[in-house]
Amino acid sequence: METKIKSACETCAHFNAEGLKKLGIHTDDFDFVVALAGNPNTGKSTVFNALTGLRQHTGNWPGKTVTRAEGGFEYNTQKFKLVDLPGTYSLLSTSEDEEAARDFILFGKPNVTVIVADANRLERNLNLVLQILEITDKAVLCLNLMDEAKRNHISIDERTLARDLGIPVVPTSARFNKGIPELIQTISDIANGTIVCKPHRIKSVPDNIDRAVKKLTTEIEKEFPGIPNSRWIAFRLLEGDTQIINALKSGELV
Amino acid sequence: MTTYNPISALILFFVIAVLLFVLFRPIKGWFWILKKNFGSNEKTIIEDILKQLYHFENSGNKVDMKTLVQVLGFNHTRVVDAIKKMTINDLIYFESDILKLTDTGREYALRIVRVHRLWERYLADKTGFSRSEWHDRAESMEHVLTHDEAEQLSVRLGNPKFDPHGDPIPTKTGKVAQVNGVELPLLPVNSIGRITHIEDEPEVIYKQIIAEKIHIGSLVRVVENNATRIVFLSEGEEFKLAPIVAANLTVAPIENEVVVEDNIARLSSLDEHETAKIIGISKESRGESRRRLLDLGFVKGANISIDLMNPLGEPHAYLIKGTSIALRKDQAAKILIKRD
Amino acid sequence: MNKKNIDSIIELSNELRWQIGDDFHDNLTESIYADASEIVKDTVQSDTSNKRFRLDAKIDKIVTSKAFGFPIMFLVLGVVLWITIVGANYPSSLLANVLLDTIHPALKNGAASINMPWWLSGFLIDGVYLAVAWVVAVMLPPMAIFFPMFTLLEDFGYLPRVAFNLDALFKKSGAHGKQALTMSMGFGCNAAGVVATRIIDSPRERLIAIITNNFSLCNGRWPTQILIATIFIGAIVPESLSSVASLLAVIGIAVLGMAFMFTVSWALSKTVLKGEVSTFNLELPPYRPPRFWKTIYTSLIDRTLIVLWRAVVFAAPAGAVIWLISNIYIGNETIAAWAIDSMDGFGFLLGLNGVILLAYIVAIPANEIVIPTILMLTVLVTGTSGGAGAGVMFELDSMNATGDLLRAGGWTLLTAINLMLFSLLHNPCSTTIYTIYKETKSLKWTVFASIMPVILGFVVTFLVAQIWRLIF
Ligand SMILES: Nc1nc2c(ncn2[C@@H]2O[C@H](COP(=O)(O)OP(=O)(O)O)[C@@H](O)[C@H]2O)c(=O)[nH]1
Ligand SMILES: [Mg+2]
């Protein structure tokens, strides 16, 4: 396990408050692209606003308020462009929102994907988390709404969670700006390769599907050596996703 | 404005309104009927004849001119003209009185069947039309789609092999897959199978099956099988069918051990303060709505209970995986549960 | 990369897809959730597992109860509308005072002092400026009050409960419970209501909500309704009842709008929209205390200003057109007079008149300027004294004077009633039409949503006019 998880305090020490500058919507010539994904109503826009200093509309309402927002911040002289994706429950269906989110993670190739999850409903949120981890291996889980979780007497063992998922986990209460410095530090570490993730891959797949997937991944990897998400492409091919088929044909995927 | 008086204006208005209604009301409007009769050109007639012949030959029946005119419902002379033309073009030939397809004719017929079944698949998976409408809509679409469009559609649907009734969709090259399975009455008591096909002819029997909650892809377990009736369980309901009705269901026996749960209930029957476990989603729910339910966490094994009753009776909100999600009655009726 | 290999990969996937069968999606989702629950098992501890959190459950029990659910909803909607209408009065008249009564004459004087030609100052100041100023004065205050209140309710988490309570009603007409909210939003502004339909994620129900949003009487139309009802309906009952009667008439129109909304929704779902995919889901999120100032700020920026900006952009050219048609002569008649003349016959059939029809045509950009345009045109064709000159919209300070002017223009009680009906049932304003196009990305649905209400309006006013004339 190469993942280095630092406890919250450790990271605080690392965090260089001086090095942070919120850039608002001025995102010219950035060094890294960061995507914000997650279920609806988990606080993505709140995290986005906390990071960029912008005031995107946030609403306590699962449904799209805005389609896609961009902003930026600068940390230790590196510029990060942040993209707030529409909230979705899954990336497996075909609704407009899901396609937008999926396309950005897959084709936009963000340097880091921040997955915002509701700490009160982790199991439900993991559905999306596990799907994203099949697509990208540069991700961090932002365990948001920790204040509510505490009020509801829910406690989460972040270390074990990080180990199980194979990516860093940062607990936050974005509304109160708690945990945001740690999140920035982690984003920067992943972008710069200081943290290397080894993401969880879906395990409990039935045998007949697993066999089919293995056959396909072997073929895909033969054609595109070193591709990080061959298994996910196999899943999509088995579902008959025309967009992925076309992307495969045009070579957009690599 | 000299001739104006409110009564004549009103009368004129109602005459126009009635006229528009008679002409354009859905399906039975005169305009649509006329359009169907006069608008259906020779191509449509030829293609319908080919398709009919194909189905007749497949089921081992012989057709002569008279039966054909009867089944098609087109004007007699137009059918005769079309047949003349088809013989000249080498699509069909006569064996004494009996009409037969040539190889080219059969190929052409398969193409039409392919488009028809693809379109039904499309309607079932990607639109909101109810299953009683699929067939009629496909009937008119099969004459419209070009070869290329059909191919694109097929790719978009993931090159399906079966239509929503379980009938095989002929491939581009005219190959037809075999429906896998046996007629339900041949399944011994206590064996388990999956419904792979529902025969839609004759219509009386088909209607009877459609009226029941019997769906393609669902598992059945036979509990009683004798000359007078066949009793089986599927998705928690018990069905009793006469053997000739049951014979219209094709079922693929399942060898390896699957558990078909007893005591399955529907989520819609859950009461406040009861808890249950989800067994699955009925095969009746398909396409986008099925995916939504799955994405929202209505998966096998999940615990569920009622969170909020609705003052108007529906939708109730259900507590699932920590979140309160409201479902309408018809949706809840498609979720299979087992009470704790 | 080798094209042939890729094709064979795709071929292989097609083959495998049919080997593993239909249940792939089910199986995959189940496996993901299986992994998820395993992970959760060793990482999450909670002593209230599977119970919704106490306070939330308590609030929910009340706001969705049989006894209180509906009263609370109507109370909240009533209070919001009341605060909007009453609260907007003062800032509106202040703005009108500044923009219309102070700046406008000042601009005219300024133009005169630099010897600007009359047609240029007329075109720019009486046409473009006045229309924009009018729209801002009438539109801004109610929106700036309505939207923040609505957004606060949204942030608190109450709105999904309203959708939950009302869904059964909307389901009967083939619509989604969330349409209750886009409809309410439409009471503020139809363009904003159309944008709000994004919360409905089922394609069919979303289209229904977009197309029928226009049946919600918007802020731009409330003042028209109130004015006409006060002048004409209030006058037929004893003095002491007049304000109650006119209030009831306006509410009646709004309720009629809802009736049309339900009926048209039902008809759409049974006919043209039958084939669109329909799914339903409604998540009830936890209650959260809204962040007051932040919410007010974002709702002003996101909703109010964007909509206002669009309205201004459309109002400017409309002002120009209004001025031009009243000042350009063909023969010895203005274009306006000529158009009014040719539409008078049709207007009469509908129980309206040419002035009203022309006003609705040129005032497509904003319902706010319909009344001022009608007054200006009435002065123009009747030649009565008063008004501010050809092409210069105005409003009169006293209701009586307005009533006298309109009666001089040939208005009767029937004209007033039918104007109120037509103000409810006509094409959406151009801001809304544009928004519908942006949201549906379909010319077909935009055209349909624009034309269907006018046709309904024609039919309804026509029938009312004929029956009225038969009876009286
Ligand atoms: N208590 C609390 N509320 C939060 C936190 N983060 C977000 N929220 C609230 O959660 C709601 C949804 O947030 P939003 O950013 O719009 O979520 P999105 O839909 O994922 O973009 C809003 O009402 C926020 O104020 C948090 O850390 N603690
Ligand atoms: Mg958001």
Strand content of chain C: under 5%
Please report the two chains with the greatest interface, counting residues with C-beta closer than 8 angstroms to the partner's C-beta: A-C, 67 and 64 residues
The Cα radius of gyration of chain C reads 27 Å
How many helix segments of chain C? 19
The biggest sheet of chain A, with number of strands, parallel, antiparallel or mixed sense and barrel status, is: 7 strands, mixed
How helical, in percent, are the residues of chain C?
A: over 70%
Largest sheet of chain C: 2 strands, antiparallel
User: How many separate helices of chain A?
Assistant: 10
Shape of chain C: elongated
H/E series of chain A, N to C?
Answer: HEEHEEHEHEHEHEHHHH
Task: Note the beta-strand portion of chain A.
Answer: 15-25%
Average pLDDT of chain C works out at 87
In short, what is this structure?
Chain B is of the alpha+beta class. Chain B contains twelve helices and 14 strands. Chain B has helices at 6-24, 30-39, 42-58, 65-72, 76-88, 103-126, 134-141, 147-156, 203-211, 243-246, 287-295, 329-332; strands spanning 92-95, 98-101, 182-183, 192-198, 219-225, 230-234, 237-241, 249-253, 265-266, 275-281, 303-308, 316-320, 323-327, 335-339.
Describe this structure in words.
- The complex is a heterotrimer of chains A (254), B (340) and C (472).
- Chain A is 41% helix and 18% strand.
- Chain A has 254 residues and is of the alpha/beta class.
- In chain A, strand 5, helix 4 and strand 6 (139-144) form a beta-alpha-beta unit.
- With 340 residues, chain B is α+β, with helices and mostly antiparallel strands.
- Among the domains of chain B are: 40-101, Orthogonal Bundle (Arc Repressor Mutant, subunit A); 182-253, Roll (SH3 type barrels), CATH 2.30.30; 264-339, Roll (SH3 type barrels), CATH 2.30.30.90.
- Chain B has twelve helices and 14 strands.
- The mean pLDDT of chain B is 83.
- Chain C is mainly α.
- Chain C contains 19 helices and four strands.
- The longest helix of chain C is centred in the first third of the chain and has 45 residues, at 69-113.
- The mean pLDDT of chain C is 87.
- Magnesium ion binds at residues 44-45, 65 of chain A.
- Guanosine-5'-diphosphate (GDP) is lined by residues 38, 40-46, 58-60, 87, 144-145, 147-148, 173-175 of chain A.
Task: Give the topology, please.
The complex is a heterotrimer of chains A (254), B (340) and C (472).
Chain A: H1 8-14, E1 20-24, E2 32-38, H2 44-52, E3 69-75, E4 78-84, H3 96-107, E5 112-118, H4 122-135, E6 139-144, H5 146-151, E7 154-156, H6 158-165, E8 169-171, H7 180-191, H8 207-223, H9 230-239, H10 242-250
Parallel strand pairs in A: 2-4, 2-5, 5-6, 6-8
Antiparallel strand pairs in A: 1-3, 3-4
Chain B: H1 6-24, H2 30-39, H3 42-58, H4 65-72, H5 76-88, E1 92-95, E2 98-101, H6 103-126, H7 134-141, H8 147-156, E3 182-183, E4 192-198, H9 203-211, E5 219-225, E6 230-234, E7 237-241, H10 243-246, E8 249-253, E9 265-266, E10 275-281, H11 287-295, E11 303-308, E12 316-320, E13 323-327, H12 329-332, E14 335-339
Antiparallel strand pairs in B: 1-2, 3-8, 4-5, 4-8, 5-6, 6-7, 9-14, 10-11, 10-14, 11-12, 12-13
Helix pairs in contact in B: 3-5, 3-6, 6-7, 6-8
Chain C: H1 3-20, H2 24-43, E1 44-46, H3 54-63, H4 69-113, H5 118-156, H6 159-172, H7 179-188, H8 190-196, H9 203-212, H10 222-233, H11 242-270, E2 282-284, H12 292-327, E3 329-330, E4 333-334, H13 335-349, H14 354-362, H15 370-382, H16 399-408, H17 413-424, H18 430-440, H19 443-471
Helix pairs in contact in C: 4-5, 5-12, 7-8, 8-18, 9-11, 9-19, 10-11, 10-16, 10-17, 13-14, 14-15, 15-16, 17-19, 18-19
The structure holds guanosine-5'-diphosphate (GDP) and magnesium ion (MG).
